[in-house]
Amino acid sequence: MDRITASDIIRLFEAWKALFAQQREFLISLDGKVGDSDLGITMSKSFAAAAEALEVEGEAAGISKLLRTAGATMARTAPSTMGTLTATGFLRASKAVEGRDALGTADIAAFWRAFRDGVAERGKAKVGDKTLLDVLDPIAVTLEAQAAVGASLAQALAATSAAAEQALEATKSMLAQHGKAAAFQEKTIGLQDAGATVGYFLIRRMAEFVAEA
Amino acid sequence: MKKFLNEPNNFVDEMLEGIYKAHPAVTYAADDKRCLVTSKVKAGKVGIATGGGSGHLPLFLGYVGDGMLDGAAVGGVFQSPSAEQMYQVTRHIDQGAGVLYIFGNYSGDIINFDMAAELADLDGIQVRQVVGNDDVASSVVGEEHKRRGVAGIFFVYKAAGAAAAEGLSLDEVTRLADKARLRTRTMGVALSSCVVPEIGHATFSIGEDEMEIGMGIHGEPGISRKKLAPADKVIDEMMERIFAEQDYKRGDDVAVLVNGLGGTPMEELYILFRRVSQLLEERGVTARHVWVGEFATSMEMAGASVSILHLDEELDRLVSAPANTPFFKHLAG
Description:
Strand order of the largest sheet of chain B: 1-2-4-3-5-6
Mean pLDDT of chain A: 92
CATH class of chain A: Mainly Alpha
CATH topology of chain A: Serine Threonine Protein Phosphatase 5, Tetratricopeptide repeat
Oligomer: heterodimer
Shape of chain B: globular
Protein backbone atom coordinates (compact mmCIF):
# COMPACT_ATOMS: atom_id res chain seq x y z
CA MET A 1 0.00 0.00 0.00
CA ASP A 2 1.21 3.52 -0.61
CA ARG A 3 -1.21 5.23 1.76
CA ILE A 4 -2.66 4.26 5.13
CA THR A 5 -6.43 4.78 5.41
CA ALA A 6 -8.75 4.81 8.42
CA SER A 7 -9.65 1.16 7.93
CA ASP A 8 -5.92 0.36 7.72
CA ILE A 9 -5.39 2.11 11.07
CA ILE A 10 -7.92 -0.22 12.68
CA ARG A 11 -6.15 -3.25 11.19
CA LEU A 12 -2.73 -1.88 12.16
CA PHE A 13 -3.81 -1.69 15.80
CA GLU A 14 -5.05 -5.29 15.51
CA ALA A 15 -1.57 -6.22 14.26
CA TRP A 16 0.11 -4.31 17.12
CA LYS A 17 -2.22 -5.98 19.59
CA ALA A 18 -1.21 -9.45 18.28
CA LEU A 19 2.47 -8.47 18.32
CA PHE A 20 2.46 -7.29 21.94
CA ALA A 21 0.47 -10.33 23.04
CA GLN A 22 3.17 -12.45 21.40
CA GLN A 23 6.07 -10.42 22.86
CA ARG A 24 4.54 -10.13 26.33
CA GLU A 25 6.88 -12.61 28.06
CA PHE A 26 9.93 -11.32 26.21
CA LEU A 27 9.22 -7.75 27.36
CA ILE A 28 8.51 -8.89 30.91
CA SER A 29 11.89 -10.59 31.14
CA LEU A 30 13.72 -7.72 29.42
CA ASP A 31 12.20 -5.14 31.78
CA GLY A 32 12.61 -7.46 34.79
CA LYS A 33 16.40 -7.24 34.53
CA VAL A 34 16.49 -3.58 35.56
CA GLY A 35 12.88 -2.47 36.07
CA ASP A 36 9.73 -3.82 37.67
CA SER A 37 8.80 -6.22 34.83
CA ASP A 38 5.43 -4.61 34.20
CA LEU A 39 6.24 -3.47 30.66
CA GLY A 40 5.04 -6.64 28.90
CA ILE A 41 1.79 -6.48 30.83
CA THR A 42 1.33 -2.76 30.23
CA MET A 43 1.89 -2.99 26.49
CA SER A 44 -0.21 -6.10 25.85
CA LYS A 45 -3.07 -4.68 27.93
CA SER A 46 -3.01 -1.21 26.43
CA PHE A 47 -2.79 -2.30 22.78
CA ALA A 48 -5.53 -4.88 23.32
CA ALA A 49 -7.78 -2.19 24.81
CA ALA A 50 -6.93 0.30 22.05
CA ALA A 51 -7.54 -2.23 19.25
CA GLU A 52 -10.92 -3.13 20.71
CA ALA A 53 -11.87 0.54 21.11
CA LEU A 54 -11.00 1.23 17.46
CA GLU A 55 -13.00 -1.78 16.30
CA VAL A 56 -16.02 -0.35 18.13
CA GLU A 57 -15.46 3.14 16.81
CA GLY A 58 -15.20 2.10 13.16
CA GLU A 59 -13.46 3.67 10.16
CA ALA A 60 -16.10 6.36 9.66
CA ALA A 61 -14.54 8.25 12.60
CA GLY A 62 -11.51 9.04 10.43
CA ILE A 63 -7.80 8.64 11.10
CA SER A 64 -7.32 11.50 13.55
CA LYS A 65 -10.27 10.53 15.74
CA LEU A 66 -9.21 6.86 15.73
CA LEU A 67 -5.70 7.75 16.91
CA ARG A 68 -7.16 9.98 19.58
CA THR A 69 -9.38 7.15 20.81
CA ALA A 70 -6.36 4.83 20.82
CA GLY A 71 -4.31 7.30 22.89
CA ALA A 72 -7.09 8.09 25.35
CA THR A 73 -7.89 4.39 25.78
CA MET A 74 -4.24 3.54 26.44
CA ALA A 75 -3.88 6.34 28.96
CA ARG A 76 -6.82 4.96 30.87
CA THR A 77 -5.91 1.26 30.74
CA ALA A 78 -2.22 1.40 31.53
CA PRO A 79 -1.32 3.93 34.20
CA SER A 80 2.41 3.24 34.03
CA THR A 81 5.09 5.49 32.61
CA MET A 82 5.39 3.61 29.31
CA GLY A 83 1.62 3.42 28.95
CA THR A 84 1.36 7.16 29.50
CA LEU A 85 4.19 7.91 27.06
CA THR A 86 2.75 5.71 24.32
CA ALA A 87 -0.69 7.21 24.89
CA THR A 88 0.75 10.71 24.59
CA GLY A 89 2.48 9.70 21.36
CA PHE A 90 -0.78 8.63 19.74
CA LEU A 91 -2.69 11.69 21.00
CA ARG A 92 -0.05 13.98 19.48
CA ALA A 93 0.03 11.94 16.25
CA SER A 94 -3.74 12.35 16.13
CA LYS A 95 -3.36 16.14 16.13
CA ALA A 96 -0.58 15.99 13.52
CA VAL A 97 -2.76 14.17 10.96
CA GLU A 98 -5.98 16.07 11.62
CA GLY A 99 -8.03 16.43 8.43
CA ARG A 100 -6.15 13.70 6.48
CA ASP A 101 -8.17 10.80 5.09
CA ALA A 102 -5.07 8.82 4.08
CA LEU A 103 -1.46 8.98 5.20
CA GLY A 104 1.40 9.04 2.69
CA THR A 105 5.13 9.23 3.47
CA ALA A 106 5.09 12.91 4.49
CA ASP A 107 2.04 12.37 6.72
CA ILE A 108 3.63 9.36 8.40
CA ALA A 109 6.74 11.46 8.97
CA ALA A 110 4.53 14.10 10.63
CA PHE A 111 2.84 11.32 12.65
CA TRP A 112 6.13 10.05 14.08
CA ARG A 113 7.58 13.54 14.54
CA ALA A 114 4.60 14.45 16.72
CA PHE A 115 4.77 11.07 18.50
CA ARG A 116 8.48 11.62 19.20
CA ASP A 117 8.01 15.20 20.41
CA GLY A 118 5.09 14.22 22.66
CA VAL A 119 7.11 11.45 24.30
CA ALA A 120 10.11 13.75 24.73
CA GLU A 121 8.00 16.46 26.33
CA ARG A 122 6.05 14.14 28.60
CA GLY A 123 8.98 11.94 29.62
CA LYS A 124 11.45 14.85 29.95
CA ALA A 125 14.21 12.62 28.60
CA LYS A 126 16.96 13.59 26.16
CA VAL A 127 18.32 11.57 23.26
CA GLY A 128 21.07 9.33 24.69
CA ASP A 129 19.35 8.75 28.04
CA LYS A 130 18.61 5.11 27.11
CA THR A 131 14.87 5.44 26.66
CA LEU A 132 12.16 5.00 24.05
CA LEU A 133 13.24 8.37 22.67
CA ASP A 134 16.51 6.88 21.40
CA VAL A 135 14.51 4.90 18.85
CA LEU A 136 11.76 7.45 18.21
CA ASP A 137 14.21 10.19 17.34
CA PRO A 138 15.88 8.30 14.44
CA ILE A 139 12.43 7.13 13.32
CA ALA A 140 11.24 10.74 12.93
CA VAL A 141 14.50 11.88 11.36
CA THR A 142 14.68 8.99 8.88
CA LEU A 143 11.05 9.37 7.80
CA GLU A 144 11.54 13.08 7.23
CA ALA A 145 14.60 12.38 5.09
CA GLN A 146 12.70 9.71 3.14
CA ALA A 147 9.78 12.07 2.59
CA ALA A 148 12.18 14.74 1.36
CA VAL A 149 13.53 12.46 -1.39
CA GLY A 150 10.04 11.34 -2.37
CA ALA A 151 10.33 7.70 -1.22
CA SER A 152 7.23 5.50 -1.36
CA LEU A 153 5.61 4.67 1.97
CA ALA A 154 6.85 1.06 1.86
CA GLN A 155 10.42 2.11 1.02
CA ALA A 156 10.43 4.83 3.64
CA LEU A 157 9.15 2.54 6.39
CA ALA A 158 11.58 -0.24 5.46
CA ALA A 159 14.50 2.18 5.72
CA THR A 160 13.12 3.57 8.98
CA SER A 161 12.63 0.14 10.50
CA ALA A 162 16.29 -0.67 9.70
CA ALA A 163 17.42 2.62 11.26
CA ALA A 164 15.33 1.90 14.36
CA GLU A 165 16.90 -1.55 14.70
CA GLN A 166 20.36 0.01 14.70
CA ALA A 167 19.24 2.65 17.16
CA LEU A 168 17.90 -0.05 19.48
CA GLU A 169 21.23 -1.88 19.28
CA ALA A 170 22.97 1.39 20.19
CA THR A 171 20.99 1.66 23.45
CA LYS A 172 23.00 -1.32 24.73
CA SER A 173 26.02 0.88 25.32
CA MET A 174 24.03 3.66 27.02
CA LEU A 175 23.64 4.28 30.73
CA ALA A 176 20.05 4.48 32.02
CA GLN A 177 19.12 7.92 33.37
CA HIS A 178 15.39 7.56 34.00
CA GLY A 179 12.89 5.46 35.88
CA LYS A 180 13.69 2.45 38.00
CA ALA A 181 16.50 1.41 35.62
CA ALA A 182 18.46 4.53 36.59
CA ALA A 183 19.11 2.99 40.01
CA PHE A 184 20.94 0.12 38.30
CA GLN A 185 23.29 2.48 36.42
CA GLU A 186 26.30 0.44 35.11
CA LYS A 187 24.33 -2.79 35.24
CA THR A 188 22.20 -1.45 32.38
CA ILE A 189 25.20 -1.39 30.06
CA GLY A 190 25.00 -4.25 27.57
CA LEU A 191 21.21 -4.46 27.84
CA GLN A 192 18.95 -3.00 25.18
CA ASP A 193 16.45 -0.58 26.67
CA ALA A 194 13.01 -2.10 27.18
CA GLY A 195 11.13 1.06 26.22
CA ALA A 196 13.24 1.50 23.09
CA THR A 197 12.42 -2.11 22.21
CA VAL A 198 8.74 -1.20 22.22
CA GLY A 199 9.48 1.71 19.86
CA TYR A 200 11.31 -0.61 17.48
CA PHE A 201 8.48 -3.16 17.56
CA LEU A 202 5.97 -0.44 16.68
CA ILE A 203 7.80 0.79 13.59
CA ARG A 204 8.85 -2.69 12.43
CA ARG A 205 5.27 -3.91 12.52
CA MET A 206 4.05 -0.78 10.75
CA ALA A 207 6.64 -1.36 8.00
CA GLU A 208 5.65 -5.04 7.66
CA PHE A 209 1.98 -4.08 7.62
CA VAL A 210 2.48 -1.68 4.73
CA ALA A 211 4.70 -4.17 2.85
CA GLU A 212 2.17 -7.01 3.30
CA ALA A 213 -0.69 -5.18 1.66
CA MET B 1 6.49 -3.06 62.55
CA LYS B 2 3.61 -2.31 64.91
CA LYS B 3 0.59 -0.98 63.02
CA PHE B 4 -3.18 -1.20 63.09
CA LEU B 5 -3.83 -3.18 59.95
CA ASN B 6 -6.06 -5.88 58.56
CA GLU B 7 -4.46 -6.64 55.19
CA PRO B 8 -1.46 -4.45 54.30
CA ASN B 9 -2.71 -4.46 50.69
CA ASN B 10 -6.02 -2.94 51.79
CA PHE B 11 -4.39 -0.13 53.76
CA VAL B 12 -5.45 2.70 51.44
CA ASP B 13 -8.92 1.46 50.56
CA GLU B 14 -9.86 0.69 54.17
CA MET B 15 -8.57 4.12 55.21
CA LEU B 16 -10.79 5.66 52.51
CA GLU B 17 -13.83 3.69 53.64
CA GLY B 18 -13.31 5.23 57.07
CA ILE B 19 -12.91 8.70 55.59
CA TYR B 20 -16.19 8.48 53.63
CA LYS B 21 -18.13 7.23 56.66
CA ALA B 22 -16.67 9.90 58.93
CA HIS B 23 -16.97 12.80 56.51
CA PRO B 24 -20.15 12.88 54.41
CA ALA B 25 -18.94 16.21 52.95
CA VAL B 26 -16.70 14.17 50.64
CA THR B 27 -17.60 11.37 48.27
CA TYR B 28 -16.08 9.71 45.22
CA ALA B 29 -16.45 9.89 41.46
CA ALA B 30 -16.41 7.29 38.67
CA ASP B 31 -17.21 4.47 41.08
CA ASP B 32 -13.58 4.58 42.23
CA LYS B 33 -12.93 5.27 45.93
CA ARG B 34 -9.59 6.78 45.00
CA CYS B 35 -11.29 9.62 43.09
CA LEU B 36 -12.27 11.72 46.12
CA VAL B 37 -14.43 14.79 45.45
CA THR B 38 -16.50 17.26 47.41
CA SER B 39 -20.13 16.23 47.88
CA LYS B 40 -21.30 19.70 46.86
CA VAL B 41 -19.65 20.94 43.68
CA LYS B 42 -20.32 24.68 43.35
CA ALA B 43 -21.78 25.86 40.08
CA GLY B 44 -19.58 28.19 38.06
CA LYS B 45 -16.58 28.01 40.39
CA VAL B 46 -13.06 27.22 39.20
CA GLY B 47 -12.35 23.65 40.31
CA ILE B 48 -9.19 22.84 42.26
CA ALA B 49 -7.79 19.34 42.22
CA THR B 50 -4.82 17.78 43.90
CA GLY B 51 -3.47 14.30 44.27
CA GLY B 52 -0.56 12.23 45.41
CA GLY B 53 0.40 9.17 47.35
CA SER B 54 -1.23 8.08 50.60
CA GLY B 55 0.67 8.12 53.87
CA HIS B 56 0.65 11.89 54.36
CA LEU B 57 -2.72 12.66 55.99
CA PRO B 58 -4.10 15.30 56.28
CA LEU B 59 -2.40 15.75 52.86
CA PHE B 60 -3.81 15.49 50.22
CA LEU B 61 -7.45 14.53 50.48
CA GLY B 62 -7.95 16.15 53.89
CA TYR B 63 -8.22 19.60 52.34
CA VAL B 64 -11.16 18.90 50.05
CA GLY B 65 -13.99 21.14 51.20
CA ASP B 66 -15.30 24.70 51.37
CA GLY B 67 -12.70 27.37 50.72
CA MET B 68 -9.99 24.87 49.76
CA LEU B 69 -10.05 22.01 47.20
CA ASP B 70 -12.75 20.25 45.17
CA GLY B 71 -11.11 16.90 44.56
CA ALA B 72 -8.09 14.71 45.23
CA ALA B 73 -6.85 11.62 43.40
CA VAL B 74 -5.53 9.15 45.96
CA GLY B 75 -2.54 6.92 45.24
CA GLY B 76 -1.10 3.94 47.09
CA VAL B 77 1.28 4.69 49.95
CA PHE B 78 3.93 7.05 48.55
CA GLN B 79 2.73 6.24 44.99
CA SER B 80 1.19 8.51 42.41
CA PRO B 81 -2.48 8.03 41.55
CA SER B 82 -3.14 7.22 37.88
CA ALA B 83 -3.82 9.76 35.14
CA GLU B 84 -7.25 8.17 34.74
CA GLN B 85 -8.11 8.86 38.40
CA MET B 86 -6.94 12.46 38.09
CA TYR B 87 -8.95 12.82 34.90
CA GLN B 88 -12.11 11.43 36.51
CA VAL B 89 -11.73 13.88 39.41
CA THR B 90 -11.25 16.68 36.87
CA ARG B 91 -14.38 15.76 34.92
CA HIS B 92 -16.43 15.57 38.07
CA ILE B 93 -15.43 18.94 39.51
CA ASP B 94 -15.30 21.01 36.31
CA GLN B 95 -18.15 23.50 36.19
CA GLY B 96 -17.17 25.06 32.89
CA ALA B 97 -14.79 27.54 34.57
CA GLY B 98 -11.78 25.25 34.28
CA VAL B 99 -9.71 23.31 36.78
CA LEU B 100 -6.42 24.10 38.52
CA TYR B 101 -4.13 21.22 39.51
CA ILE B 102 -1.96 21.81 42.57
CA PHE B 103 0.44 18.98 43.40
CA GLY B 104 3.97 18.34 44.58
CA ASN B 105 7.05 18.21 42.38
CA TYR B 106 7.52 14.43 42.01
CA SER B 107 8.10 12.77 38.62
CA GLY B 108 5.26 10.21 38.88
CA ASP B 109 2.72 12.87 39.85
CA ILE B 110 3.91 15.21 37.11
CA ILE B 111 3.63 12.66 34.31
CA ASN B 112 0.16 11.56 35.42
CA PHE B 113 -1.22 15.06 35.98
CA ASP B 114 0.14 16.09 32.55
CA MET B 115 -1.60 13.11 30.99
CA ALA B 116 -4.85 13.87 32.85
CA ALA B 117 -4.68 17.46 31.60
CA GLU B 118 -4.26 16.19 28.05
CA LEU B 119 -7.31 13.92 28.42
CA ALA B 120 -9.33 16.77 29.96
CA ASP B 121 -8.30 19.02 27.07
CA LEU B 122 -9.85 16.51 24.64
CA ASP B 123 -13.13 17.08 26.54
CA GLY B 124 -12.70 20.84 26.24
CA ILE B 125 -11.89 21.30 29.94
CA GLN B 126 -9.31 24.02 30.55
CA VAL B 127 -6.62 22.91 32.97
CA ARG B 128 -3.79 24.87 34.60
CA GLN B 129 -1.09 23.57 36.92
CA VAL B 130 0.87 24.89 39.88
CA VAL B 131 3.56 22.49 41.09
CA GLY B 132 4.60 22.85 44.73
CA ASN B 133 8.38 23.04 45.28
CA ASP B 134 8.75 24.61 48.72
CA ASP B 135 11.41 22.27 50.16
CA VAL B 136 14.51 24.44 50.47
CA ALA B 137 16.72 21.47 51.40
CA SER B 138 16.09 19.49 48.20
CA SER B 139 18.02 21.76 45.83
CA VAL B 140 20.00 24.98 45.80
CA VAL B 141 18.90 28.50 44.86
CA GLY B 142 18.78 28.74 41.06
CA GLU B 143 17.64 25.10 40.80
CA GLU B 144 14.28 25.65 42.48
CA HIS B 145 12.53 23.61 39.76
CA LYS B 146 14.21 20.52 41.21
CA ARG B 147 12.87 21.10 44.70
CA ARG B 148 10.30 18.74 46.17
CA GLY B 149 6.87 19.81 47.30
CA VAL B 150 6.21 19.34 51.02
CA ALA B 151 3.99 20.86 53.74
CA GLY B 152 4.07 24.38 52.27
CA ILE B 153 1.60 23.23 49.60
CA PHE B 154 -0.98 23.89 52.34
CA PHE B 155 -0.54 27.64 51.79
CA VAL B 156 -0.96 27.21 48.03
CA TYR B 157 -4.21 25.29 48.62
CA LYS B 158 -5.39 27.97 51.01
CA ALA B 159 -4.69 30.87 48.66
CA ALA B 160 -6.07 29.14 45.56
CA GLY B 161 -9.11 27.78 47.40
CA ALA B 162 -10.03 31.20 48.77
CA ALA B 163 -9.50 32.82 45.37
CA ALA B 164 -11.77 30.28 43.69
CA ALA B 165 -14.39 30.73 46.41
CA GLU B 166 -14.35 34.49 45.67
CA GLY B 167 -15.43 33.60 42.14
CA LEU B 168 -12.19 34.63 40.42
CA SER B 169 -11.30 33.31 36.95
CA LEU B 170 -9.03 30.35 36.25
CA ASP B 171 -6.19 32.66 35.21
CA GLU B 172 -6.54 34.73 38.35
CA VAL B 173 -6.78 31.72 40.67
CA THR B 174 -3.69 30.29 38.98
CA ARG B 175 -1.80 33.57 39.36
CA LEU B 176 -2.57 33.74 43.08
CA ALA B 177 -1.74 30.07 43.68
CA ASP B 178 1.57 30.58 41.90
CA LYS B 179 2.30 33.67 43.94
CA ALA B 180 1.69 31.73 47.16
CA ARG B 181 3.97 28.99 45.84
CA LEU B 182 6.76 31.43 45.01
CA ARG B 183 6.57 33.03 48.46
CA THR B 184 6.49 29.81 50.49
CA ARG B 185 9.58 28.05 51.87
CA THR B 186 9.84 24.94 54.02
CA MET B 187 12.63 23.24 55.97
CA GLY B 188 12.19 19.83 57.58
CA VAL B 189 14.03 17.63 60.03
CA ALA B 190 13.57 13.91 60.68
CA LEU B 191 14.31 11.98 63.86
CA SER B 192 13.10 8.52 62.87
CA SER B 193 12.02 6.55 59.80
CA CYS B 194 8.61 5.71 58.43
CA VAL B 195 7.29 2.24 57.56
CA VAL B 196 5.35 1.59 54.33
CA PRO B 197 2.71 -1.04 55.29
CA GLU B 198 3.23 -3.26 52.24
CA ILE B 199 7.00 -3.25 52.84
CA GLY B 200 6.77 -3.77 56.57
CA HIS B 201 10.12 -2.42 57.72
CA ALA B 202 11.73 1.00 58.17
CA THR B 203 12.43 2.89 54.93
CA PHE B 204 15.84 3.97 56.29
CA SER B 205 17.78 3.73 59.51
CA ILE B 206 18.89 6.60 61.69
CA GLY B 207 20.74 6.43 65.01
CA GLU B 208 18.89 6.91 68.34
CA ASP B 209 20.80 10.15 68.94
CA GLU B 210 20.76 11.44 65.34
CA MET B 211 18.68 13.84 63.27
CA GLU B 212 18.63 14.46 59.55
CA ILE B 213 18.11 18.05 58.48
CA GLY B 214 16.25 18.47 55.21
CA MET B 215 14.94 14.94 54.83
CA GLY B 216 12.01 14.54 52.41
CA ILE B 217 8.55 13.28 53.36
CA HIS B 218 9.23 9.87 51.81
CA GLY B 219 12.64 9.56 53.45
CA GLU B 220 14.61 11.18 50.64
CA PRO B 221 18.11 12.14 51.79
CA GLY B 222 18.49 15.56 53.39
CA ILE B 223 21.36 18.01 53.72
CA SER B 224 23.13 16.69 56.80
CA ARG B 225 22.87 13.98 59.38
CA LYS B 226 24.26 14.74 62.81
CA LYS B 227 23.82 14.43 66.54
CA LEU B 228 20.44 15.69 67.69
CA ALA B 229 20.85 19.26 68.99
CA PRO B 230 18.63 21.18 71.46
CA ALA B 231 15.31 22.25 69.89
CA ASP B 232 16.28 25.95 69.65
CA LYS B 233 19.50 25.09 67.80
CA VAL B 234 17.59 22.90 65.34
CA ILE B 235 15.16 25.71 64.60
CA ASP B 236 18.00 28.25 64.34
CA GLU B 237 19.62 26.14 61.61
CA MET B 238 16.34 25.59 59.75
CA MET B 239 15.21 29.21 59.95
CA GLU B 240 18.59 30.50 58.84
CA ARG B 241 18.10 28.68 55.54
CA ILE B 242 14.53 29.96 55.17
CA PHE B 243 15.49 33.56 55.94
CA ALA B 244 18.32 33.38 53.40
CA GLU B 245 15.82 32.66 50.61
CA GLN B 246 13.75 35.84 50.60
CA ASP B 247 14.11 39.43 51.65
CA TYR B 248 12.07 39.63 54.88
CA LYS B 249 11.96 43.27 55.93
CA ARG B 250 11.12 44.75 59.32
CA GLY B 251 7.34 45.19 59.38
CA ASP B 252 6.66 42.32 56.94
CA ASP B 253 3.96 39.78 57.69
CA VAL B 254 4.20 36.01 57.39
CA ALA B 255 2.03 32.95 57.93
CA VAL B 256 3.72 30.11 59.82
CA LEU B 257 3.02 26.40 59.63
CA VAL B 258 4.79 24.16 62.14
CA ASN B 259 4.04 20.66 60.93
CA GLY B 260 4.55 17.33 62.69
CA LEU B 261 5.63 14.43 60.46
CA GLY B 262 3.46 11.88 62.27
CA GLY B 263 5.45 10.67 65.26
CA THR B 264 6.20 13.89 67.12
CA PRO B 265 4.00 15.11 70.01
CA MET B 266 2.21 18.44 69.74
CA GLU B 267 4.07 19.65 72.82
CA GLU B 268 7.35 19.41 70.94
CA LEU B 269 5.89 21.25 67.97
CA TYR B 270 5.01 24.17 70.25
CA ILE B 271 8.54 24.15 71.67
CA LEU B 272 9.72 24.51 68.06
CA PHE B 273 7.22 27.27 67.30
CA ARG B 274 8.34 29.16 70.41
CA ARG B 275 11.80 29.55 68.89
CA VAL B 276 10.42 30.34 65.40
CA SER B 277 8.40 33.15 66.94
CA GLN B 278 11.45 34.52 68.81
CA LEU B 279 13.45 34.62 65.58
CA LEU B 280 10.64 36.38 63.72
CA GLU B 281 10.35 38.97 66.52
CA GLU B 282 14.10 39.61 66.40
CA ARG B 283 13.72 40.52 62.73
CA GLY B 284 10.61 42.62 63.31
CA VAL B 285 8.51 40.23 61.21
CA THR B 286 4.94 39.57 62.37
CA ALA B 287 3.43 36.09 62.36
CA ARG B 288 -0.07 37.10 61.20
CA HIS B 289 -1.29 33.51 60.98
CA VAL B 290 0.04 30.53 62.91
CA TRP B 291 -0.84 26.88 62.54
CA VAL B 292 0.82 24.21 64.66
CA GLY B 293 -0.13 20.56 64.18
CA GLU B 294 -0.09 17.79 61.61
CA PHE B 295 -0.66 18.97 58.04
CA ALA B 296 1.62 16.81 55.90
CA THR B 297 2.93 13.68 57.56
CA SER B 298 5.13 10.78 56.56
CA MET B 299 3.41 7.84 58.25
CA GLU B 300 4.96 7.46 61.73
CA MET B 301 8.10 9.46 61.04
CA ALA B 302 9.20 11.55 64.02
CA GLY B 303 10.23 15.02 62.98
CA ALA B 304 8.84 18.35 61.93
CA SER B 305 8.89 20.99 59.27
CA VAL B 306 8.50 24.74 59.34
CA SER B 307 6.86 26.53 56.40
CA ILE B 308 6.83 30.29 56.05
CA LEU B 309 4.58 32.15 53.63
CA HIS B 310 5.82 35.69 53.01
CA LEU B 311 2.52 37.57 52.92
CA ASP B 312 1.45 40.58 50.95
CA GLU B 313 -1.94 42.25 51.06
CA GLU B 314 -3.80 39.91 48.72
CA LEU B 315 -2.22 36.73 50.10
CA ASP B 316 -3.16 37.87 53.60
CA ARG B 317 -6.77 38.32 52.43
CA LEU B 318 -6.82 34.79 50.96
CA VAL B 319 -5.15 33.12 53.94
CA SER B 320 -7.61 34.86 56.27
CA ALA B 321 -10.68 33.59 54.39
CA PRO B 322 -12.81 30.88 56.01
CA ALA B 323 -12.38 27.20 55.19
CA ASN B 324 -14.20 24.05 56.21
CA THR B 325 -12.70 20.69 55.24
CA PRO B 326 -12.47 17.33 57.03
CA PHE B 327 -8.99 18.13 58.38
CA PHE B 328 -8.88 21.92 58.37
CA LYS B 329 -11.45 24.35 59.66
CA HIS B 330 -10.81 28.05 59.78
CA LEU B 331 -13.06 30.92 60.81
CA ALA B 332 -12.59 34.15 58.88
CA GLY B 333 -9.74 36.35 60.18
